[in-house]
Write the structure tokens for this entry.
Amino acid sequence: MTVRVQKEDFDVGAEIAALRRADARVGAVASFVGVVRDMNEGGAVEEMALEHYPGMTERSIEEIIAQAHGRWKIYDALVVHRVGTLKPTDQIVLVVVTSAHRADAFAACEFIMDYLKTRAPFWKKEKTPSGARWVDARVSDDIAAERWRLKG
Amino acid sequence: MIKVLYFARLKESLGAASEQIALPESVSNLHDLRTLLIARGGVWSEELAVNRRIRAAVNQSMAAEDTAIADGDEIAFFPPVTGG
């Protein structure tokens, strides 16, 4: 598995190619890309700053990937999450999962993303026309993560 | 000594990113530590008040209020996470 937290942007094509390179067992690659929107909670967002807890953030994502390995037949997984200042249309997060068949890849990719949203220590602060504000955690994200307790 | 870290909204409002605290005998778990910090009053009692949604980690793992803490531990307090 690979987990990276970085300020730099990432190249989705290159990351996917690197993850599945030379592994002829791979029949499915599922990926998710999270992107900064220009609206949140009905207000305009000019830019956002992402903070994390170095060490714990990487470790918690590794634990989430390890859980995914325990629940689905996947070969490898990659998570790249950006920190620092981001603007609307910028990529924030990439999750890539490889497996033999699509069902495992899709499920594991969604699981990793849902768990990351509620368990990995990142915090967003948005800059809006009326000032900066910390983004509040969403109940819908808790519900999305909670679904996985009933499945798998 | 324990190391205590604060992140995001907490770091800003408390005006502190990290500090070293000599662990008093009365403090044996996360709940005790939070109570000790609340007793400082002012922004501490406001931001760490029991009705505020605060998460905590002990040695970089998410931890519940009754998690034991000991000398040399790294403790962190932060708001619910909002990544992704």
